[in-house]
Structure formats: structure tokens, C-alpha cells
Write a structure and sequence with these properties.
The complex is a heterotetramer of chains A (about 300), B (about 325), C (about 525) and D (about 375). By secondary structure, chain A is an all-alpha fold. Chain A has 13 helices and two strands; from the N terminus they run H-H-H-H-H-E-H-E-H-H-H-H-H-H-H. Helices cover about 70% and strands about 0% of the residues of chain A. Chain A has a two-stranded antiparallel ribbon. The longest helix of chain A is centred in the middle third of the chain and has 28 residues, at about 190-220. Chain A is globular, with a radius of gyration of 20 Å. The N and C termini of chain A lie far apart (about 60 Å). Chain B has a twelve-stranded mixed sheet with strand order 2-1-3-4-5-11-12-10-9-8-6-7, with helices on both faces. The longest helix of chain B is centred in the N-terminal third of the chain and has 25 residues, at about 1-25. Chain B is elongated, with a radius of gyration of 23 Å. Classes of the chains: A mainly alpha (about 300), B alpha/beta (about 325), C alpha/beta (about 525), D mainly alpha (about 375). The interface between B and D is large, with 67 and 73 residues.
Chain lengths: ~300, ~325, ~525, ~375
């Protein structure tokens, strides 16, 4: 296996592309978890985003509307998680799993109601990739980095923006306080309930956008189980990045790279059963997490519902 | 809390336990009826614009041509197939079509149990010692694959053609082999690269696999995936240099008009209608070869010189009349 | 030392007829209270008397079921902490409401960052450090709170209130975890605040402190406000009587008498060069050696977070030992499993009752046998509920644990009763395998005087029976009252060793803080 | 003072009252859930009344329906038990699907090994089931080990291992064990003497449910009557306190996950020799794992309560399939149905626990 294969520009370009939905979803989840809510429904949320977004984009032929619809729909799911987890103080994990399953079923139901049996599967035009003048001219890295769809740039732009928001602004400070010690924040007049609701809803919307990314930029069509476990990976990227926006990037890239690489390897190593390569991303993910979990320090109040009147 | 819930459960369990009593009253397992009623059981959603949608279409044809009552169940997991079939039988359906080979167990179990119901099941190679009430549709994809391989070999400029399928099934391996055979006949130096994504219906994987092939210099891709195909289309459309492709089951060229060469269409109406007709005549067993000429046909051709189009059509007709007979090798891939 | 402010008393806060109940418990029963400008009011009462609840209502954390509050003569509604802040009321809770992972500064400015969009860190830091100067509160604002000493954390809490312009400052049990020196320092600060025209409320059950610092004293019992008296008219006996009410049998302060049995005692527990690291590989116990003899109670005191917890847990087997050894009556137990230690009679009454003590959603009986269950059953693999509940009922009776039944979920019990359950567990083990060494962490924290007394007697009884006890107590008075010896730990090393005849609270305190004394 | 002796035995009519309240409570939640679900039915243009009558008639109305309901009940019950045991022991086993697959793999594998070994049928069946049990246990044991030793969150590992399991099955079912005739990802059948006898003739129902019921009792006994069970519950409730009590947390967590997986694996084995005539099939489990999680949650992780709820979900599962025939309701709807049912049951219960449903009397 030659070195050229590992650094082949088209491979890297694809890796960067496929890392984006992971990263975006991870950022959404990060906002939610920083406020003290655990959302394990990402996989379901992403597929709702993919389904709803695709439907709207198909009928309006407009990616903007598609994105907005995806975000709105998933924001609704986020609100639902909030209602159970914050207002009713339910076990966020169990409710999250319920929403995850709900999210698996809903989009294919809607898709089916929208289009009956079709000779040719409905298709939308992909978001065009826009090459940044001059930069994309740079040999080798130009096409890899600067010839991507808008959403890719936006996602990577969101990383510094989010870290600035979290660590340099009053709202960010209060948001983190909700995740660390809600009672303390509450005694200082931070509105825990409102903050957490805002976080689940906004975070969910972002996750929805991440879901829409797949049909809008990769496949142009919607199929059941289109997310294929990426939501679960995103969930882990948050821990991988120790709840810091920037640190999630490397994880997203790593996973996307290995995922893209496996098919190259499969072409060369004929004697090896392809399934072996297909398990590669998941096994690598597990191995990586073994290291990560040693030093993972989650927000102190993660998964703890807040009840001001609770004693002590 | 717990105590009360417990009682609730007991009640539920009791309910379940009592129901069969009601059950025996309402229906008897072996109800007879003369009219032919056809039920189609499909593994996937009929909105897949593919295998299951074709099954659905075929069922309409059967209903029209044979003037029989029909019903269908889609997205039936193998685990549920037998159950669903029994429910149809309980509702006096006497022809059960299993839309795919994964239902072989269900078919065999039921065939023994319900001699007066006829079953239709697909498979890749003929089922040995077929029960007297089972029709067996044997699909011979590799024959079609041979034609596509020949075409690809004539179209490629880089001398590399790709074969892309989802699950590494024996008859999908057979296709790879016949593609290789055909290409070799055209030009021994042509390299055939194949890849299995592990899922017939995952366009994301398909996209990545196709990208990998294109990076390897492949410029004609023979796609043998179902919903996954859209991923291949996007990969082909995204690549800077012209990469052409073919697919099967339905004509999808409108989604990538510049890239599609041809599609191998499957008209399941032909076999299903034929078999149901036979059953109406009282012939409740037999083997139907699903191959060029009987259900498999070529779509219009695009993006190719007339000469090649002509040779493709002639090769196809030779396949139809068995003037060309590709070797069937489901054992292992040509280069292993 | 009553403040002159009492003379021209202007009423700042008036609380009337407040009621509050939690499910079935009445926490406040028609309680009324008034605060005056520039005074220190001590809110005195036993645990569970409703002191904290009353103040939580004033600081907006709880909402009273009925009753009304006037501030400067205006009726106000305090529904949430923010309202209290607007009314310039600040409260420092017994368990600090600080965010360990934030810097002191972040903790202080949280909620009032001074700007809408971007935090001007430097500017805020300047503002806060000015406050520090005015009130003599010296804090390193850039360090993370979890790395600050308890005393300093308290200062951060006070700064939080002042930063929000509070002129009513409520301190809930402010001295519990402080050394005598820190206590004096705190009282100075309080005086300084009052002289600047603030009103300070101190919630406490320690009478001598009340007499030392307050201008007026309000006594509460069972959710009722009994009375309010000027400090100059108060004395210890009178206050006790008021706190305990009718049921008080006067002699609650009568200390446990330790029968002397020094001669025939030989070493029971031997700790040599013990060294322990935490999960970040920091040394938390460093080369500690000491002995506990039979029928001896040894007190381990120190400022919280100096390693006493880790030391106790290491002896109990909860933490891996890096170096050194532990032996019980000669037999080495350095690396023995917790279960072996239990079977040898080493048992721990843990520091953190909730986290380390109970099984919240399992029944009281199951919590009570946990640990003892290894030795409770004839057939070792079977869990015999009958036997368990029989033992539990006995324990509930002996320790007078207030619970509907032994089948109640443990988390339903109040703090005091939970502590009793844990003690009952220890003595159940004694009954089954015989305790050799009891490691007791604040065994009486949160217990009313009667129960405290009861526990002290239990410990004395153990001692009389020739058993050893390691008592880790935040309450120096308790340690001095009970222990034959007191060892002091500071910065994860033993720095002081006092025998009963030479106890001096200030010397011990000095050893704890490592200051002059 | 005498509070301790106050309430020892709860008066019987009080129990009866609360039982009644419970029934009302769950009655309401189910009704509301059905109402919400009828929105979906209406949306896909079906007649709601028909739909629901169909649901229950098809799963109850005939011996066949009933037998099939039993078959569906088995994996759901076993799966839910697996999840529940995990929850009691403080771990979330999201990998039931994967463990079912691996259990099936082991069962099938042993079946092939024993192909021409002369052993009596019952013994073979037992051995094959045992293989599934062990297989699932070992697979989940990996996650258990990672959690116990490296503290890797088991939710993540089990989910990832679901995907891995699918590829393992796909490899076996298309490669070495493939049945070339089928032309699908499906293996050759193992010896027929290893197949489960049928429970009710001509309904396709098999004995599996009996093993499942046995398992319910087994888990109940383990949790409440054994020392290990006590350790599992203790660690699940408060690991730190359990450690103070001399319980080995790591062992407990590992055993919990392994056992949990083993139960799931048993389900896989039962499916293979009960439903699939001794064949290992890709698609052996249509989301049993996910449903198991819901059922376990609704059943508050108590074996006895789960018994009832799994039956209910099985009925619903079988029933909503029949909607395709009756009103050609999209198959995708079934999953939505189940999830909605779950969310609403939880909703009503939580409202009740928060005391928001005063008309039901005081909250428990």
C-alpha cells in the first residue's frame, strides 16, 4: 500500500466533506450538553433533519428552505426532549432513546406519505461546491480545502464562533454555569430552565442541519437509515473533544478519513473480506475512546434535572 | 406504584391467554376457497423506486392480466415473513409470492404445512427437490451482466471498468465474473475492479466506494445496487473527468442524463403474471428462468456511438436466444 | 460587644407568618422575623429547626406557602433568587454554591457580567479587587475555585453577595469547616461589614459563637420562631433551654466521661509511612505513621481537603496505597480487599453520607445491611430478605430512626436519620464480626443534641469494650471532648500530635493552618 | 418517636385503591397514545376504526395470530429483560440487537459443528440455546470489560458493536455459511433435530416463549434472592456506597453486562431455531433492541412488570403490520407507533409522579 494512496487529494477532499456532518452534529450536541442536558437522540434527530429537509427542498427546489425546515423540525424534537428532561425531569437517557427510535421511523413515514411508489427515486440538485478564488488555485491543498460546499465552510467557521461565545460572552458563561452547578447559577439569577430550553432547541436545530447535509450534499436522495450511525459517532466526538468545540475537529476528521479510506483499501487487498474493512471505522472509534475516557471530565451537572425546591 | 403496575400486567397476560378461545370461535385455520387470491410479500418499502417498487408494479400487472384479487405487504423483515404469510393464508389467500430469496425458509416451512396453497419464491440458482406447490423463479443476472461488461469494455478509455454492488452474494459475484469474462473477450488488457459496500441501499457508502474507484482511474461503472445507486450517480456527476455508468432494475438516466449509458430493466410482471397464470391452469410447480428475453430487457441507450449501441443490441438478442452463453460462476471471484 | 446600631434601630426587613411544608414535613410554622440596619442577628436553633428554610425563603430559593415579607416598609414578593438580589439580599449557603471549574472571578461576576456581549475580564477583575480591598477579603481571582482553601471559598461567596451590592448578608453555618483562627478572622470581617452599614444574619447552632459575634439572637424550634432577645441579656444555659424547649433535660452538655484504661492497652492499628495518590497522581497522603491502641479514640483533625479523607479511605481500603503499610493487631492489611478488612472488623462511617453511604432507591433495610451482608447469611450465595429486615427493624428501634418502615426507600429519610442508619450499620457489623477499628467521619454532623449525645455514648462504649476508633471531625470541640489523642494533618502530612492532657484549641488550630497560632 | 412502629403493614383496601388508580393511569395513557397514532393513520388516508379493530383482531382474533403474537413476544420479552437487568446494575445496554446477532451466530455455528454428532434432539436444542446464551454474553462482556477496566461508556461501545455484529453476520451469511440457492444474505439450515418444537400446531408458534418466561423468573430470583443480585442492585443504585460496603464494583458491572448480553444472545438463538428453521439471516432482528429499551423503560426495569408490557407491545407490533393489508398503512409507521406509545406512557406517568393529575388521587 503506497503512501500516495493515503494522501490522495480526492480522498482528503471526501474526508473533509464527510467530516462536516459529524462535526456539525457534535457542535449541536456540545451546546446541549454544556447546559447540562444529555441528548442521545442525535441519530434520530439527524435522520428527521435529512428526511424533512429533503422533502421541503424537493418541493420548493430551494436548499435554504430545506435547511430551515430541517432545523425547525428537529428543533421541535429538541423542545420535546426539553419538555421531558427539564420540565418533567425525566431520565434524559431513556427519553432520548425513545426520541431516537421515533426519529428513525418518522422520516420514512413522511417520505412515503409524500411520494407513493415511484419509478425513479426523487432527486434534488446537490448544493454546489463553491471554489474560493485564488485559494482554491493553490496546488494540492487548494482543491482539498477550498473547493467545498458553503455548508462545509460555515461549519468550520462555527467552531471558533462557538468557542468565543462559550468562553468570552456573558451568555456563554451562564450557559456553562447551568451545566456545572445550576443551583449556584440560579441563586445568581441565571434562568436555568430558559437557558436549558434555549440550548436544547438551538442545539437540536444544528443537529437537524447536520442531518440535512447528507441528502443535500452527498446523496441527493433520501433513503431509510441514511444516517447510518453517524449520529452515535457525533455523540462520542463531544466526549472525544472534552466538551471543547475545537477539539472535536480532529475526531471528526479522523473518523471521516478512515471511513473514506476503507474503500480504497478494499480495492487493493482483494483477499480480505470487505466486511473487515467496513467494521474498521467502528473498531477504531472504540479503540480511540478507550484512551479518551481515561481523562474525560464531563460537565458536573450533566443529566441532572434541576428542581429549585428540592431540599439540600 | 409497582404493586399496581404488577396487577395491570397480570391483567394483560390474562387477556392474551384468554384470547385464543375467542380465536377458535372466529376463524378456522384451513378455510377453502376456489378463487385465486394473490399476496405479495416484499422485504423493502415499495417507495424504494427499485426492487420492491417493481414487485408492486408487477402485482398490478398480475391483477390486470390474470384478473385476480391481490394484496401486498412491504418492508417485511425475514423474521416476520412467515407470520405475515400465515395471516394471508388465514384470510384465504392461496397464492403467496415471496419477493426475494431470503424467504426460502418461510417458503419451505409453509409449503409443507399448506399443500393447498401455492407459493412463488425467487432464488439465485434452482431450488433442489422443489415441493409440488412451489414455483421457483431463478434470476440469471449474470447473463445481463455479461452484456454490460461487453459494453463497458468498449466504452472505457482508461482500460479500467468498475463493478459496484452492495452485499457480496454468490450471484452478485457471478455478475462480476461474467463482466470480467465479457470484458476479456473485447480486450484482454482491460482491468475489472469490483467493490462491495456492504449495503444495497446505503447511498453514502456507495458514494464513497464509487469515489474510490474513480480515483483508481475507472471511467465506466457497472452499478448493481438498489437505493444505493444515487450515491454512485453523485460520485460520477461530481468527478471532474467524464465517468459513465450503467445500472439495473429501472431506467434512472434522467437523474444523470450525461452519464448513463444504459440500464438493464427488470419487468417482474412477466414472470409473476406467467406463473400465476400457470397456477390458475392448475400447474402448481415449476421453474421460471428470469433472464434476457423473459423479463430482463435493455433500456434505450445514451451517450454512446451508434456502432456500439448496435453491437450491444445484437449481443443482447444473442443472449436471449442462448447463442451466447456466459459461464456461471457463483463460487468465487475471478481474481481470487 | 453589642453594636451601637441596636439603639437607633431602623427596620430593614419584616417577615410575617411564613409557612412552608415539604411533602409531609412542616419546615416553617407561622414564622416571623425582623432585621434591622447595621446589626448582626444570630438565628439559633437545632438542625431541622427551620433556620435555613426561613432564610432560603428570604433569598428566593424557596417560596413560602403563605405569609408576607416587607422590605423598608414596602411589601415585596420574592419568588426567585433574582428578586432577592434586586432587594440587595445575599446568602452564603452552608455548602457553598460555587462552580469548581470556574475561576473565582467567573464565579463572582456570573449573572452580572457588566456587559451584554463580550466580557471585559480585566475591567471586572479591577472592580472586584477593589471590593476585596475595602472589606479586607483577600482572594486570588484568577485561580479555579476548586483549588482554593475552604476559608477562601467562603470569602468568594461573600464577595459574590457584595459584588451584587447586597446590604443584607446571610451566612448559613459559616464556621463549621473553619479553624479557630479562620473563625476569628471571619468575625472581624463580619464586624467590618456591619460597621459599613450592612445587616448580617448568621445561621448557627453553636452557642458560644452566637454570644461572641451577634447583637440580637432569634431562637427557632420545630419551624417556629420562639423568641428574639438582645445578646447582652443572653447566656448559655438560657439559650440551651430555649433551643431544646420543654423536652430539654438540661444536662445535654454533660460531656461523655472517658474511663481511663491507659496501661493495659497495646497497639491495635499500626500505620507506617503511608503514602496515597489521587487519580491525578498527586500525593494526597504523604509518609503518614501513627498508632491507635486498644480502647483508644484518636481524633484526626485538619482543615478540610488536607488529606484526612484520603487517609481514612486508604485505611478503609477505598484507595490504593502507593507506599507504606497498615497492620491491624500485627496482621498486615496493606493491600487487603475492603471485604477482608470488613471481616477483620475495620468499618467506615463515610464522610459523604449520600454519595458514599446510602443506596437511595433501595430500602432502608438493604442500606443498613450493605457491607454486613457478607456475614449475615448462612448460605453465602442466598440473599435472605427475612433475616435482613429482622436486623433492620432491630437497628431502627435501637437508633430510633424515623422511618415509616424498614421497606421505605432510603432517600426518603432526612439527613439526620440517614446518619443514624449508617451508624446502625457499623454496629450491626460489630454484632456480626466484631468491630476492631471504627473509622468515623463527622459521626454527629446534623444530629440533634439528644442523638449526638447518644452517639457519643456509643463511641465511649466501644472504647470501654477495648475497641479502637479513628474519629475525623470538623468540630474541634467534639474531638477534644471525645478523643484520648488528637493528630493534626496538614498538606497531607501529620504535623501535630496532642495527648488529652495538653489540649489547647489555639495550638491545635495553629497546627491545622500552619500559621503562628 | 413511635413513627417506626406506626406503619408496618399497608391496609388491603389501600392497595386495592392504588391498583385501581394504576389501571386508570395506564388506561388513559394507552387511549391517548392510540388517539395520537390515529393522526398518522389518518394522514396516510386510512380509516381509524378499521385500523384499530384490525390491529387487535389480527393479533388476537385467530390461533395463527395468537401464535405469531407469542413468537413476537419472545424476543421482545428477552430483549427487554436484558436491558432491564443492565439498568438495575447501573449500565445501559443499547447493544441488544448486536448481541442477538452474535447469539444467533454462536447457535448456528454450534449447530453446524454438531451436524453429524449422535446426540438426542432435546440435548442439541439445549446446547444450541446455551451457545447463543454464551455468545451474547461474551460479546456484551467485551463492552463490560471496557467499562469495568477502562471506564469506557458502555452505551457507546454497545452501539458501535451493533454495527460490527451486522458485518460479522453479513460476512458469514454471504460467505462461508451462505446458502447459494437463496441468493440472499442467509446461511444453510442447521440439523433439523436442533429446531424448536412448535407450541400450538399449524400456527408456527414455538416453545421459545417458555424459555423467556423461565428467564423472567430467573432474573427475578437473581435480583431479589441472591447475594450477587443484591450486589448488582446495590452497584446500580450507588457504586461508591457499594464499594464502601465491600462490593467489587468492576466484577459486578462486568457480570451485569455479560448476563444482560447473554439473555439477548439467547433471544438470538431462539429466533434461529424457532423462527428461521435453523438459518442465520441478515435482518434477523427488526429493531428488537430498540423496542426492548422502550419496553424496559415503560416496565421500570422490573421483570414482572416487563412481562406485561412486552406482551402489550408484541400485540401492537403484530397488529400494526396487519394495517398494511387492511389500509395499506406504510410499514415505516410501525416504528413511529411504538415510539409514540412509549413517549405518551412516560408522559402520563411523569405527570402523575409530579402530582399534575390530581383527579387520580394522591401520587405514589
Amino acid at each position: 500500500m503506497s503512501f500516495e494512496l493515503l494522501v490522495d487529494p480526492s480522498l482528503l477532499q471526501l474526508a473533509l466533506l464527510m467530516s462536516t456532518p459529524l462535526l456539525l452534529a457534535a457542535l449541536g450536541e456540545l451546546i446541549i450538553e454544556r447546559s447540562g442536558i444529555l441528548n442521545v437522540a442525535i441519530e434520530g434527530m439527524m435522520s428527521v433533519g435529512a428526511g424533512v429537509g429533503f422533502l421541503v427542498a424537493f418541493f420548493t427546489e430551494d436548499h435554504l428552505l430545506g435547511s430551515l425546515a430541517a432545523m425547525a423540525a428537529v428543533a421541535l424534537m429538541g423542545w420535546l426532549l426539553g419538555y421531558y428532561g427539564i420540565t418533567l425531569r425525566a431520565n434524559q437517557l431513556i427519553i432520548g432513546l425513545g426520541l431516537f427510535i421515533f426519529g428513525l421511523g418518522l422520516p420514512s413515514l413522511l417520505y412515503r406519505i409524500a411520494f407513493g411508489p415511484q419509478m425513479v427515486a426523487p432527486r434534488i440538485d446537490l448544493m454546489p461546491s463553491l471554489a474560493i478564488p485564488f485559494l482554491s488555485e493553490i496546488p494540492y491543498i487548494g482543491p482539498v480545502l477550498f473547493d467545498q460546499p458553503l455548508l462545509v465552510y460555515l461549519t468550520y467557521l462555527l467552531v471558533p464562533v462557538l468557542s468565543f461565545f462559550l468562553f468570552r460572552t456573558p451568555l456563554g458563561l451562564q450557559l456553562r454555569a447551568c451545566g456545572e452547578n445550576p443551583r449556584a447559577a440560579d441563586t445568581l439569577g441565571v434562568n436555568i430552565i430558559a437557558t436549558r430550553y434555549a440550548c436544547v432547541i438551538i442545539g437540536a436545530a444544528i443537529i437537524g442541519l447536520a442531518g440535512y447535509f447528507i441528502p443535500a450534499i452527498v446523496t441527493a436522495t433520501y433513503t431509510d437509515n441514511i444516517i447510518g450511525g453517524r449520529g452515535w459517532i457525533a455523540l462520542q466526538l463531544v466526549i472525544f473533544g472534552r466538551w471543547l468545540p475545537g477539539a472535536s475537529i480532529s475526531g471528526a476528521l479522523l473518523f471521516a478519513y478512515i471511513e473514506a479510506l476503507q474503500y480504497r483499501l478494499a480495492l487493493i487487498a482483494k483477499s480480505v473480506p470487505p466486511q473487515l474493512f467496513q467494521t474498521l471505522p467502528y473498531i477504531v472509534a472504540i479503540l480511540v475512546m478507550i484512551q479518551v475516557y481515561q481523562r474525560a471530565e464531563k460537565p458536573a451537572a450533566l443529566m441532572q434535572p434541576y428542581n429549585r425546591e428540592a431540599r439540600g | 406504584m409497582k404493586a399496581k403496575v404488577r396487577l395491570f400486567c397480570l391483567v394483560l397476560v390474562l387477556m392474551i391467554a384468554l384470547v385464543p378461545l375467542a380465536g377458535c370461535a372466529t376463524s378456522s385455520p384451513q378455510a377453502k376457497s376456489t378463487a385465486v387470491r394473490v399476496a405479495l410479500i416484499m422485504p423493502g418499502p415499495i417507495s424504494d423506486s427499485d426492487w420492491n417498487m417493481l414487485g408492486y408494479e408487477a402485482l398490478q400487472v398480475v391483477a390486470k392480466e390474470q384478473e385476480v384479487e391481490t394484496a401486498y405487504s412491504e418492508k417485511i423483515a425475514v423474521a416476520d415473513a412467515e407470520r405475515v404469510a400465515r395471516e394471508y393464508i388465514a384470510e384465504d389467500y392461496n397464492v403467496i409470492i415471496f419477493h426475494g430469496g431470503q424467504f426460502v425458509t418461510a417458503t419451505m416451512n409453509l409449503a409443507g404445512e399448506y399443500p393447498d396453497v401455492t407459493f412463488i419464491m425467487g432464488s439465485a440458482t434452482p431450488v433442489p427437490d422443489l415441493p409440488p406447490n412451489v414455483w421457483n423463479m431463478v434470476r440469471r443476472y449474470y447473463k445481463g451482466g455479461y452484456a454490460l461488461g461487453d459494453l463497458a469494455a468498449r466504452m472505457t478509455k482508461t482500460g479500467k471498468i468498475g463493478y459496484l454492488a452492495g452485499v457480496q452474494l454468490p450471484d452478485f459475484m457471478a455478475i462480476a465474473n461474467s463482466v470480467h469474462e465479457a470484458a476479456g473477450k473485447v480486450d484482454p488488457n482491460i482491468e475489472v475492479i469490483y467493490s462491495f459496500t456492504g449495503d444495497q441501499n446505503d447511498p453514502v457508502k456507495a458514494r464513497q466506494a464509487a469515489d474510490a474507484m474513480i480515483a483508481e482511474g475507472v471511467d465506466v461503472i457497472i452499478d448493481w445496487m438498489n437505493a444505493g445507486v444515487s450515491g454512485v450517480e453523485e460520485a460520477v456527476l461530481a468527478s471532474d473527468d467524464v465517468v459513465l455508468m450503467t445500472t439495473f432494475s429501472t431506467d434512472k438516466h434522467e437523474r444523470a442524463p450525461e452519464r448513463y449509458l444504459v440500464s438493464m430493466l427488470l419487468d417482474l410482471g412477466v414472470p409473476y403474471s406467467f406463473m400465476v397464470g400457470e397456477i390458475k391452469q392448475g400447474k402448481t410447480t415449476g421453474v421460471f428462468d428470469f433472464e434476457p428475453g423473459s423479463g430482463m430487457l435493455l433500456s434505450p441507450t445514451y451517450n454512446m456511438p451508434d456502432g456500439i449501441a448496435a453491437s450491444l443490441k445484437s449481443l443482447w438478442s444473442q443472449l436471449e436466444n442462448d447463442e451466447v452463453i456466459p459461464t456461471e460462476n457463483t463460487e468465487k471471484l475471478f481474481d481470487q | 460587644m453589642e453594636g451601637t446600631s441596636v439603639l437607633q434601630a431602623t427596620v430593614r426587613v419584616e417577615m410575617r407568618g411564613l409557612n412552608k411544608r415539604f411533602e409531609d414535613v412542616v419546615a416553617l410554622d407561622n414564622a416571623s422575623l425582623s432585621l434591622q440596619v447595621g446589626e448582626v442577628l444570630a438565628l439559633l436553633g437545632e438542625n431541622g429547626a427551620g433556620k435555613t428554610t426561613l432564610m432560603n425563603v428570604l433569598s428566593g430559593l424557596y417560596r413560602a406557602d403563605c405569609g408576607d415579607i416587607e422590605i423598608n416598609g414596602q411589601p415585596v414578593h420574592i419568588n426567585k433568587p433574582l428578586d432577592a438580589i434586586h432587594q440587595r439580599i445575599g446568602m452564603v449557603h452552608q455548602h457553598f454554591e460555587l462552580i469548581g471549574n470556574f475561576t473565582a472571578l467567573d464565579n463572582i461576576i456570573l449573572g452580572q457580567e457588566g456587559s451584554r456581549y463580550v466580557i471585559d475580564v480585566a475591567g471586572q477583575e479591577k472592580r472586584v479587587s477593589e471590593l476585596c480591598q475595602t472589606y479586607g477579603l483577600h482572594v486570588n481571582l484568577r485561580t479555579k475555585v476548586k483549588d482554593l482553601a475552604i476559608g477562601t471559598q467562603q470569602k468568594v461567596e461573600i464577595l459574590k453577595a457584595l459584588y451584587r451590592g447586597a446590604d443584607i448578608l446571610i451566612l448559613d453555618e459559616p464556621t463549621t469547616m473553619l479553624t479557630p483562627q479562620e473563625v476569628d478572622n471571619l468575625f472581624l470581617i463580619i464586624r467590618q461589614l456591619v460597621d459599613n452599614g450592612l445587616t448580617v444574619v448568621i445561621i448557627t447552632h453553636k452557642i458560644h459563637e452566637v454570644l461572641k459575634v451577634s447583637d440580637r439572637i432569634t431562637i427557632m424550634r420545630r419551624g417556629k420562631v420562639i423568641c428574639t432577645i438582645p445578646t447582652r441579656e443572653a447566656n448559655e444555659a438560657k439559650l440551651i433551654a430555649l433551643m431544646m424547649g420543654a423536652e430539654s433535660s438540661g444536662d445535654c452538655q454533660e460531656s461523655v466521661t472517658l474511663t481511663d484504661c491507659g496501661e493495659k492497652s497495646e497497639p491495635m492499628l499500626q500505620v507506617r509511612g503511608l503514602t496515597v495518590k489521587d487519580k491525578h497522581q498527586h500525593l494526597v497522603v504523604e509518609d503518614v505513621s501513627f498508632e491507635i491502641c486498644t480502647s483508644q479514640i484518636v481524633g484526626l483533625v485538619g482543615v478540610a481537603g488536607n488529606g484526612q479523607r484520603e487517609l481514612a479511605e486508604a485505611i478503609a481500603g477505598l484507595r490504593p496505597i502507593v507506599a507504606g503499610e497498615i497492620a491491624l493487631s500485627g496482621k498486615d492489611l496493606t493491600h487487603a480487599s475492603i471485604r477482608t478488612r470488613l471481616s477483620k472488623g475495620i468499618t467506615l462511617v463515610p464522610e459523604d453520607r449520600i454519595r458514599q453511604g446510602i443506596l437511595p432507591h433501595l430500602t432502608v433495610s438493604e442500606t443498613m445491611v450493605l457491607g454486613a451482608h457478607h456475614f449475615l447469611f448462612k448460605d453465602n450465595q442466598i440473599f435472605d430478605l427475612k433475616a435482613v429486615e429482622k436486623k433492620a427493624r432491630a437497628g431502627i428501634h435501637e437508633f430510633d430512626i424515623r422511618t415509616p418502615s424498614e421497606k421505605t426507600a432510603t432517600c426518603k429519610l432526612s439527613g439526620g436519620n440517614i446518619q443514624k442508619v449508617l451508624l446502625a450499620r457499623a454496629f450491626l457489623l460489630d454484632e456480626l464480626v466484631g468491630i476492631q477499628l471504627l473509622i468515623a467521619f463527622n459521626p454527629t454532623r446534623g444530629l440533634d443534641i439528644m442523638t449526638t449525645h447518644f452517639v457519643h455514648n456509643k463511641l465511649a462504649a466501644l472504647r470501654a469494650a477495648g475497641k479502637s476508633t479513628l474519629l475525623i471531625s470538623e468540630d474541634l470541640d467534639e474531638a477534644m471532648q471525645l478523643c484520648d489523642r488528637i493528630v493534626v494533618i496538614r498538606a497531607s502530612r501529620l504535623v501535630g500530635d496532642f495527648t488529652r492532657d495538653c489540649y489547647d484549641r489555639y495550638k491545635i488550630g495553629a497546627a491545622m493552618v500552619g500559621g503562628e497560632g | 418517636m413511635s413513627q417506626a412502629t406506626l406503619v408496618r403493614r399497608v391496609p388491603i383496601q389501600k392497595i386495592a385503591k392504588s391498583l385501581l388508580r394504576g389501571l386508570v393511569l395506564y388506561g388513559i395513557s394507552i387511549v391517548v397514545a392510540l388517539l395520537v397514532n390515529s393522526l398518522f393513520i389518518a394522514a396516510s388516508g386510512g380509516n381509524i376504526i378499521d385500523a384499530y379493530s384490525k390491529i387487535f383482531s389480527s393479533s388476537f382474533g385467530s390461533w395463527i395470530g395468537f401464535g405469531q403474537t407469542l413468537n413476537k413476544w419472545t424476543p421482545l420479552l428477552l430483549g427487554a429483560l436484558a436491558v432491564a437487568l443492565g439498568n438495575r446494575g447501573g449500565v445501559y445496554n443499547i447493544g441488544v440487537d448486536g448481541q442477538i446477532y452474535i447469539g444467533a451466530v454462536f447457535a448456528t455455528g454450534l449447530g453446524f459443528l454438531l451436524a453429524d454428532v449422535p446426540i438426542p434432539a432435546p440435548l442439541i436444542v439445549f446446547l444450541v440455546l446455551l451457545a447463543g446464551f454464551i455468545g451474547g454474553g461474551m460479546y456484551a462482556g467485551i463492552a463490560g470489560y471496557l467499562r469495568a477496566v477502562y471506564n469506557v461508556n458502555e452505551i457507546f461501545t454497545t452501539v458501535m458493536m451493533n454495527f460490527v455484529a451486522v458485518f460479522i453476520v453479513e460476512y458469514l451469511a454471504t460467505g462461508p455459511w451462505n446458502d447459494p440457492i437463496a441468493g440472499e444474505a442467509i446461511t444453510l439450515p442447521i440439523i433439523s433435530s436442533a429446531h424448536l418444537p412448535s407450541l400450538i400446531p399449524r400456527t408456527g408458534s414455538h416453545l421459545g416463549i417458555l424459555f423467556a418466561l423461565l428467564m423472567v423468573f430467573g432474573i427475578w430470583f437473581l435480583l431479589n434472592k441472591t447475594r450477587l443480585g443484591f450486589h448488582i442492585r446495590a452497584v446500580g443504585d450507588n457504586p461508591v456506597a457499594s464499594e464502601v460496603g465491600g462490593v467489587n464494583i468492576r466484577t459486578s458491572i462486568f457480570l451485569t453486562l455479560a448476563l444482560s448480553g447473554a439473555i439477548a444472545g439467547l433471544a438470538g438463538a431462539v429466533e434461529v431455531i424457532g423462527v428461521h428453521g435453523g438459518r442465520l439471516i441478515l435482518g434477523l432482528t427488526p429493531n428488537y433492541g430498540s423496542l426492548a429499551i422502550l419496553i424496559s423503560a415503560v416496565g421500570m426495569a422490573s421483570p414482572t412488570i416487563i412481562l406485561g408490557w412486552s406482551a402489550f407491545f408484541a400485540v401492537f407490533f403484530v397488529g400494526s403490520d396487519s394495517l398494511q393489508r387492511s389500509i395499506s398503512f406504510p410499514a415505516a409507521g410501525v416504528l413511529v407507533f411504538q415510539a409514540v406509545m412509549f413517549l405518551i406512557i412516560m408522559w402520563i406517568r411523569l405527570l402523575h409522579e409530579r402530582g399534575s393529575l390530581a383527579f387520580l388521587g394522591e401520587k405514589s
